[in-house]
Automatic annotation (TrEMBL):
Coiled coil ranges: none
Keyword Disulfide bond: no
GO molecular function list: zinc ion binding
Source species, domain of life: Eukaryota
Organism, scientific name: Bimuria novae-zelandiae CBS 107.79
Full protein name: MYND-type domain-containing protein
Length: 474
């Protein structure tokens, strides 16, 4: 039984925020809710029928730690689902029902993201779109795809889920990354692979000239040994190794591939920033970056930002200010400021006189700009902010965006998908913003796919998939 996964709350409480979240494989009944082990004999919560376990021990443990706070809410959701029951419905109808239920959850438990996620990611028949609970109530079997194990059809519709081969393939890929991260956490105590260039560069290598992540690892960073082992898109190991390599060689190559692929999801932030600095032709010894809308994710991945010191030879001092309402602090209700605090650097950076530091501000950016400690940034960054499509678009984001345009500061934006990018581009043009870089696919997006459960059936999003840069107004 995986020891660390089943103890993840205690590990997080001890100060390690880098723990795995509940996998989609668990939510869809293929892994245990508590220890994330594959399920052979499934134990299901008899109350809500939404939580799955490998043993009574895991079920009892999960009840004490998590599920006792969720079960009654899930039972209420099941009742709402029954009231809205339809024998068959379109994706649009299913989506509308799902959004209605999510609003109920937000009212019942506004701060519990896991609760919403479990409902969003629930298993359902992709033909009639009845949910796993609705089908179980009627004693109708839900059949799982034997390849990806994440798509279903009910016995009334088909014995085999019918979904395009391309969808099945990307779900298989996603499942591999989930399983890798679970195993990586068990081996290392960290859920997120981190790999930076080992030594600072003496000369700057242009990211604009690189074709993507394979070029970065081989030609810009320091991993030429992967050349010939993986396909450039990191889809699989090379055919020669797959056909002729020993089991050990194939296993080692597969683990290295998954490590580097998952590492793109953490390196995407510093490399997207580095690319933007090239675009605005920034070349100075001191860099002050404001990350707006920052959450725990940015704070967990702070170590990766040292890559900026390694890739830009002229850079001696990197300061990052993370600003956002969800920044952790002593009190949840008050604004909170952590003044400049030095962060540790690797030995080569220390010996070269390089430094990095961080400041934190809990609140919205346009309020932070009024604070006496505010320092004008060289670059403002908004990673996947959803400033047009999010719930707080008007209340929080609109004043911040107008402030950024008025202040004539370079601002880098990324989005999860092309739809969000188009919506933001349109609104920026309405505000009269000047585009330094128009909306485009980001070559430094994370390569780990994450399923989209609301906006698009079978949709996938990627961290920082699209990007653009503005500065001032026209």
């Amino acid at each position: 039984m995986p020891a660390k996964c089943k103890d993840r709350e205690r590990i997080a409480a001890s100060g390690n925020a880098d723990v795995p979240s509940l996998p989609v494989g668990a939510i869809r009944g293929d892994l245990c809710f508590r220890c994330f082990s594959p399920l052979d004999d499934i134990l299901k919560c008899s109350g809500c029928r939404r939580a799955y376990y490998c043993s009574e021990k895991c079920q009892k443990s999960d009840w004490k730690l998590v599920h006792k706070n969720h079960c009654k809410i899930f039972q209420t959701i099941n009742q709402v689902e029954e009231e809205k029951y339809q024998r068959s419905r379109t994706w649009a109808e299913y989506r509308e029902s799902l959004l209605f239920i999510i609003r109920i959850i937000r009212n019942a438990a506004p701060r519990d993201d896991n609760l919403r996620y479990i409902v969003q990611a629930q298993a359902y028949c992709t033909s009639c779109r009845r949910t796993v609970v609705q089908l179980a109530t009627r004693k109708i079997v839900l059949n799982r795809c034997t390849k990806c194990r994440l798509v279903f059809s009910c016995a009334d519709c088909s014995s085999t889920p019918e979904h395009p081969a391309s969808i099945c393939e990307i779900y298989q890929h996603f499942r591999r990354t989930e399983n890798f991260r679970i195993n990586f956490f068990e081996d290392t105590g960290k859920a997120t692979p981190v790999t930076c260039t080992q030594f600072p560069r003496d000369t700057r290598k242009s990211l604009a000239d690189a074709t993507g992540w394979f070029d970065y690892y081989v030609k810009i960073s320091d991993k030429p040994q992967i050349d010939g082992k993986f396909k450039p898109g990191f889809s699989s190991i090379e055919i020669d190794i797959d056909r002729n390599g020993s089991d050990r060689e194939k296993d080692e190559a597969e683990r290295m591939l998954m490590f580097l692929l998952c590492a793109t999801d953490t390196l995407t932030m510093p490399l997207t920033i580095a690319q933007a600095l090239e675009d605005i032709q920034w070349e100075k010894p001191h860099l002050n970056v404001h990350i707006v809308g920052a959450t725990d994710r940015e704070l967990v991945l702070l170590a990766n930002f040292e890559e900026l010191l390694h890739l830009i030879p002229s850079l001696r001092d990197l300061h990052i200010t993370a600003i956002g309402p969800e920044i952790p602090g002593p009190s949840e209700n008050d604004s909170f400021i952590l003044s400049r605090q030095s962060l540790d650097c690797c030995p080569p950076c220390k010996s070269g006189g390089r430094e990095r530091s961080i400041s934190l501000y809990r609140g919205v950016y346009h309020d932070y700009c009024k604070d006496p400690k505010f320092e004008r940034p060289d670059l403002v960054v908004l990673f996947n902010s959803r400033w047009v499509d999010g719930d707080d678009a008007k209340s929080h984001w609109e004043p911040t965006i107008k402030k950024l345009v008025a202040d004539n500061v370079p601002a880098l934006f990324t989005t999860y998908n092309s739809g969000e990018a188009r919506n933001e581009q349109q609104r920026m043009k309405e505000l009269g913003a000047n585009f330094v870089i128009e909306v485009e696919e980001n070559k430094w997006k994370g390569l780990v796919p994450t399923p989209e459960f609301i906006d698009e059936e079978y949709g996938m999003w990627y961290n920082n998939a699209y990007r653009y840069i503005i500065q001032g107004s026209k």
